[in-house]
């Protein structure tokens, strides 16, 4: 029997690949700009120590730095996209490494700028910042000046800069252990075929309709963490101690305050998320109880919470048809949005299909001088490919509107708002598909089930993770020991709170907190929960309120990074400083659960 082989890059038709000529016509043009930027780096020395000399010198320094940054980003974008086309291509791997090195050198040579701006005499700074000539850069400068109380003297800053590589040791050790040294053994699938268990296929095993296969995969996967639990507990503990070191040396109240400072988010926003979700767990419990009944189990285990309730779904959709579906789903945003979206998805933004050596997964990536290109590995028979397409398209359209409406200095938006646009698109897609498949009851159940599980993972689970981060950091900040037993005990308490009596909590699940890479980037995961809450609220507004809500949302996409993220969301029509959007997201989740139960019972 002939086997299906992954095609080589040259065997993929050109119209199925992204068109990078917007960035550079060819590699030689890239080399020319690289050489020019490399030569210009020396000019940073002309500005060092002279920012206080005159407004003109000050402005020239800022604009020179931004021009270097812009060109370096253009070089990096082309190089990393070329490298991701085929990770075995050594020429483009080298180009990628050169682009990173250039950006690093630029960062080192420009490191004097922020401290020198912060050290300007008050009267000089006031005169500069109030002058109309500097008006375009006021918010940019405001963000730099906010860090002045948290900046040490020049020699101390130099020492702190030298600590960063050492401080990343805990994260690096965990990454190497988790991605290289951990081995999960071999499993047999339902046909008796032996398959090596890995991070990549763990979820595939968990959606297997055969419960015993799911159970074995779960237990075998966590056995690897059981075997290394003391080491991983130590890396996690020392990563948190690293957070505490920087919080104290930077004069922040605690680790969380340091992490939230860049986005100007108060700790009350974080606490409000946790408190609101914990007060409204009833819809989650209702869903898990229904899932147990639908699967016919006396007890529900976590390894039973991923498998679709309806599994025998025959899905088939070409990429071109998927684009049509995405365009139709986004119709509430108007013709300008959907026209740009369609032209981009069919006209050179997207590298569509898997090829030999191509980077796995999916992303949206670009720079100010390019479209936000999309890397996909689209599969016609996988509905997740459709959702991935519209998710990444949300990021790309966010970047499109930002680049079209903001100067370079404000084109880049923060992670806090980044997931709003992508999740917003997924929400509209689910609403559209439920209507599209209105005459196919099994597909409706499948889509409802998928959307519920997506919100469950993004809102409820990530909030539990956020509370775990708060608890563990509080323990270290109180100078109390954070041992393996303490970590497991606190995590089990959270599992019991967030699952209630709906799930049998296996001992292996206490180790889940040891396998989450995001815990090495403190207080990051809460943004997933706030993002999905904001997205659901905004999608509902656009559907219900029409033109005014549409305009507000599109204006939000145009803001880029010109405001702090909470203020941008307020402009869009949702205030994440209140409980309302989180409550609405949970109510939406509850409505979906009720629909699922009703549709399932009518099959």
3D architecture notes:
The chain has 603 residues and is mainly alpha-helical. It has a domain at 10-151: Up-down Bundle (Butyryl-CoA Dehydrogenase, subunit A, domain 3), CATH 1.20.140. It has helices at residues 27-40, 55-85, 90-109, 113-118, 122-130, 138-146, 154-167, 169-181, 199-206, 211-227, 229-249, 255-261, 267-279, 282-295, 319-329, 335-346, 383-405, 415-436, 441-477, 484-499, 526-545, 547-558, 565-572, 580-601; strands at 186-188, 194-196, 350-351, 363-365, 373-375. The strands form two sheets. A three-stranded mixed beta sheet has the order 3-5-4, sandwiched between helices. A two-stranded antiparallel ribbon has the order 1-2. Helix 17 packs across helix 18. The longest helix has 37 residues, at 441-477. The chain starts with 26 loop residues before the first helix and ends with a helix. The model has no long low-confidence stretch (mean pLDDT 94).
């Amino acid at each position: 029997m002939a086997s299906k082989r992954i095609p080589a890059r040259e065997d993929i038709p050109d119209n199925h690949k992204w068109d990078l000529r917007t960035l550079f016509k060819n590699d030689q043009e890239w080399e020319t700009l690289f050489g020019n930027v490399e030569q210009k780096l020396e000019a940073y020395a002309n500005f060092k120590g002279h920012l206080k000399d005159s407004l003109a010198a000050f402005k020239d320094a800022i604009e020179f730095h931004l021009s270097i940054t812009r060109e370096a980003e253009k070089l990096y974008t082309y190089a990393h996209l070329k490298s991701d086309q085929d990770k075995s291509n050594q020429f483009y791997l080298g180009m990628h490494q050169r682009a990173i090195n250039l950006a690093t050198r630029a960062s080192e040579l420009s490191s004097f700028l922020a401290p020198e701006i912060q050290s300007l005499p008050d009267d000089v700074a006031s005169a500069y910042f109030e002058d109309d000539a500097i008006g375009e850069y006021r918010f940019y400068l405001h963000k730099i000046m906010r860090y002045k109380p948290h900046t040490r003297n020049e020699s101390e800053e130099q020492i702190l800069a030298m600590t960063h590589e050492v401080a990343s040791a805990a994260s690096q050790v965990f990454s190497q252990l988790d991605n290289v040294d951990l081995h999960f053994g071999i499993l047999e699938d339902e046909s008796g075929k032996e398959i090596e268990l890995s991070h990549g296929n763990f979820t595939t095993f968990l959606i297997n309709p055969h419960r015993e296969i799911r159970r074995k995969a779960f237990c075998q996967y966590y056995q690897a963490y059981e075997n290394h639990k003391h080491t991983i507990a130590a890396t996690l503990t020392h990563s948190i101690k690293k957070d505490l070191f920087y919080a104290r040396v930077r004069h922040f109240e605690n680790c969380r305050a340091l992490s939230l400072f860049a986005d100007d988010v108060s700790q009350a926003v974080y606490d409000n998320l946790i408190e609101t979700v914990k007060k409204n767990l009833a819809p989650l419990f209702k869903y898990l109880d229904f899932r147990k009944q639908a699967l016919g189990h006396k007890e529900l285990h976590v390894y039973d919470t991923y498998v679709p309730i309806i599994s025998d779904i025959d899905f088939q959709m070409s990429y071109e048809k998927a684009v049509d579906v995405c365009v139709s789903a986004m119709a509430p945003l108007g013709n300008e949005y959907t026209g740009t979206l369609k032209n981009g998805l069919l006209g050179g933004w997207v590298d569509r299909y898997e090829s030999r050596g191509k980077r796995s997964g999916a992303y949206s990536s670009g720079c100010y001088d390019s479209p936000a290109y999309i890397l996909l590995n689209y599969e016609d028979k996988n509905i997740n490919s459709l959702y991935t397409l519209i998710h990444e398209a949300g990021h790309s359209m966010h970047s499109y509107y930002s680049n079209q409406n903001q100067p370079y200095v404000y084109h880049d938006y923060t992670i806090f708002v980044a997931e709003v646009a992508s999740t917003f698109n997924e929400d509209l897609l689910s609403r559209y598909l439920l209507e599209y498949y209105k005459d196919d009851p099994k597909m409706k159940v499948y889509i409802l089930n998928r959307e519920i599980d997506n919100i469950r993972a993004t809102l409820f689970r990530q909030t539990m993770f956020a509370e775990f981060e708060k608890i563990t950091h509080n323990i270290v900040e109180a100078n109390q020991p954070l041992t393996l037993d303490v970590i497991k005990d606190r995590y089990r308490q959270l599992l019991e709170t967030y699952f209630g009596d709906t799930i049998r909590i296996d001992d292996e699940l206490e180790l889940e907190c040891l396998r989450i890479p995001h815990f090495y980037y403190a207080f990051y995961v809460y943004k997933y929960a706030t993002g999905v809450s904001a997205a659901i609220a905004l999608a509902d507004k656009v559907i219900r309120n029409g033109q005014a809500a549409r305009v507000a949302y599109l204006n939000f996409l145009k803001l880029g990074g010109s405001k702090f993220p909470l203020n941008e969301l307020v402009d869009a029509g949702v205030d994440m400083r209140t409980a309302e959007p989180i409550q609405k997201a949970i109510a939406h989740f509850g409505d979906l659960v009720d629909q699922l139960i009703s549709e399932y019972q009518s099959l």
